Structure formats: C-alpha cells, structure tokens
Amino acid sequence: MNEADAMPGTRPASKPLTRGEMAARAARDIPEGWYVNLGIGMPTLIANYVPFDREVIFHSENGILGMGPQPEPDKINRWLVNAGKQHVTLRPGGCYFHHADSFAMIRGGHLDLCVLGAFQVAENGDIANWATTSESAPAVGGAMDLCVGAKNLWVVMEHTTKAGESKLVRRCSYPLTALGCVTRIYTNLAVLEVTPEGFVVTEMIPGLSFQELQSRTDAPLKLAC
Amino acid sequence: MIDKFVRSAAEAVDGVKDGATVLVGGFGAVGQPLTLIDALIEQGAKDLTIVANNAGVGRVGLARLLDLGRVRKVICSFPRSSDPVVFEELYKAGRIELEIVPQGTLAERLRAAGAGIPAFFTPTAYGTQLADGKEVREIGGRSCVLETALQGDVALVECWKADRWGNLTFRDSGRNFNPVMATAATLTVAQSQHVAELGALDPETVVTPGVYVDRVVHVPYGDP
Where on the tree of life does the source sit, at the highest rank (chain B) (predicted)? Predict the structure, then answer.
C-alpha cells in the first residue's frame, strides 16, 4: 500500500501524518480560483489531492499556468516538464510563457499562494529552505522569489528532523531564504499559523496533547482560542 | 535578401572568443540547445562564463563543456540535477567559480540587459547570503537589493520554428529562458527544430522577433 493511500481512520491515535496525508491536509485549504505554485518535493504532491472540479490553477516557474497531473506513460510530452523536471500535462485553459514573465508573475504579487518545503521556519516567519552548511554546492532555484512574491506562503514539512530536532524554531540557524514571509505551516503533527505573537496551533493530530506538541517544538506555541 | 540561416552548427558558433560570457537556454534538458553546445565544444573557446539555470547533467552537453575545463565560472540558480557529477567534482576541487542567483533575479537580470536597464532594485534575497555586499535601499516600505543587468556576449537558444528573418516560436515548456536570453546577448544564435517560410509563422505566435536573432541553424531531431 502506498503511504499516500493510507486512510487516516486506520491509524492508531497520535500517529504522525504520512507525506501524502500532510499534502492532502494542505490541499483541503486551497480555495477554487487561486493561482498556486507548489515547490518541489512534498508540496508537489498537494496537486494530487485537489479535486479536478475545484478549479485551482497551478503555476510552474518554467512557464506554465494550468499545469495538470502526470501523463500516462504512453502520452508523455518530453517538452512539458514542471519545476522538478518531471513530465506533466496542461489542462484545457492552460498556457505557456517565458521565464522572465513567469517570475514577473511571481515577483509582481500575482500568485495567491506558494507552498514550499523547509529545513526551518522561525516564529517571526523567517524561512530557511535552500542551503545547509553541510552541502558542497548551494542551489536556490526560485525559492527566494516565491517567498517574497506570493500573497500567502505556506510550508509543508515534518515537525522535527530525523534526529528529533524541532524545525519550528525561535531563529533559523540555517542560511535564510527570506525574512518574515511564512503565513502557515502544515507538519505531520499540527497546523500552525505564523502570527505577530509567534506560532499559533490551530489543529493537532488526534491523540496528541498540546504539551506533547510543545515538547517537540523549540519555539513557544500558543493554542488558538 | 536577409537570410539568418547558416549551414552548420559549426558556422553558427563561429567566432566565440575565449573569455566570453555565454547564455545557454533551457530548463534542465528541455529547450536546451544541445547541438550548439556540442558545436561550442568542438569550436574550442575556453575560459568561458556560462549563464544557465542548471550546471549540466551526466557527462554530456553542458557537463562535457565543464568537464573539458573550458568554463571558468557558472552563473546559475540551481547547479544540482539528477546527475550533477561533473559540476560537483569541479566545485569540490575548487576548479570552477559559482555565482548562485535566485531564479527570478537571474531572469530579470537578463531581461534588464536586453531592455537597456543597467540595474534594478528587488526585494528578492534581501536579508540573505545572496545579498551580501550588495547595495540595499528601502523603497515603498520594503527593503530591496540592487541587482545589475547580466549581458552575454553570445546566447545559445533552442526554438521550435524559425524563419529566415530570425522570428522564433517555441514549444510548450521548452520556451523557458530562451526568449529572454535571446534579447540579452551581442550575438544570438538559435537552433530550430523546424524551418518556416517567411510569412508562414502567424505573427501573433512569434515569441522572439527576429531583431534579437543573428544566426539560425536547422537541427531537426523529431517531434515529441
């Protein structure tokens, strides 16, 4: 069974969400009519969970609006890839444009939402998602442009690293991608808003207490009223 | 009679000098002018600065140009790929310079060069390592970084159809950096999948007007 297919109801209480479940949870909150850019990795999965009849228009940095799902293996168009260089399709109504127009769209504030992965998000909305000190050659792609340009910036990421370190921090220790721009975070344990008062928890997985969530989080948390 | 078509890829890249800044279109492998890159490898220019979104895959094309030691510096947004072996080797050995540029800033620096704008302010990268040493100014309540135009000596682009005046159309996401790079170089060279008779391209579909294009070479390699 694919992890993305796991049914929430079959999980024991307090089991962290899978990557597919996190993507599905974020997808639920995207309204019809929004223009949305999904970062590579887990955010890309979100498109799989937006029903076709809820018309969300996906943007890809390399010049696509109205990007559709992966093609059937015998219908691949090798001229049509997404930002992660995976083959995709174009929905009816979709269109193409060049890179400078694509980033003018991003930087000009025309996209309603961007969803990115991250190494760390700080309580003031700073995001670090492009480089860690261990990497040899850094690579930034379009992350810095998306962070400052999108009207809403959501992050989808595990709550902690594999070593158990919190990814929601007081101040980012990794190189910053952008300052004060993250508005909401979906983790495998909770949904949090980034507010002037710091992280506010709006949702937790069943069976997890606020104290348990706080104990796995470096930055102080508040519970939404 | 104007005819920008040349007979061979070798002729298309003739005259590229050592030390040149070469803009290379494409996003990953899509829309990359592979035949022109191979011709540049044969042509022999060295000490090049390559401007491209990526820094090559495997050991062919751009990666081979790097592997042959012909590139002094890479200016790109994302040097990683599914197989960035050559770039990683050179980078770890300290044998290549790397300038990382946010992808939108890269596109805009090229656009600015093509549009005669020497520099511009943008909020992108403010407060990050990529703004180190750059002038910062607060404009309209936002902190912005001064970025300069990125002009090429040569642009190598790939298109779908071209006519003898150098009007170009593109295919799907193969458009990517190609049109903006075509505007930003002293010498713009296009490899085209198809040749169109003058007047056969619907003027509404021309993405790159021929004013930006100096040479075109016909490189058919099959429809999708």
Answer: Bacteria
> What is the identity of the amino acid at B165?
W
**Structure confidence at residue B192 (pLDDT):** 98
Domain assignment of residue B128, yes or no: yes
Say what the pTM is: 0.94
With an 8 Å Cβ cutoff, are A103 and B103 in contact? yes
Q: B residues 123-152 near A, CB within 8 Å?
A: 123-130
ipTM of model:
0.95
Is residue B81 in a domain? yes
For residue B77, tell me if it sits in a domain: yes
Among candidate residues A21, A55, A61, A123, the one labeled active-site is A61
Cβ distance A219 to A170 under 8 Å?
yes
**Any domain includes B1:** no
| pLDDT for A138 | 86
Domain, as residue range, for B121 = 9-218
Residue owning tokens 């029903």: A51
- Cα(A84)–Cα(B25) distance, rounded to whole angstroms? 17
If pLDDT is split at 50, 70 and 90, which confidence band does B141 have? very high
B45: closest CA of chain A, how far (Å): 25
Mean pLDDT score, A170-194: 98
Extended beta strands in A86-144, E state = 89-96, 113-116, 120-122, 127-128
What is the CATH classification number for the domain harbouring B102?
Answer: 3.40.1080.10
Write down the mean pLDDT value for chain A: 93
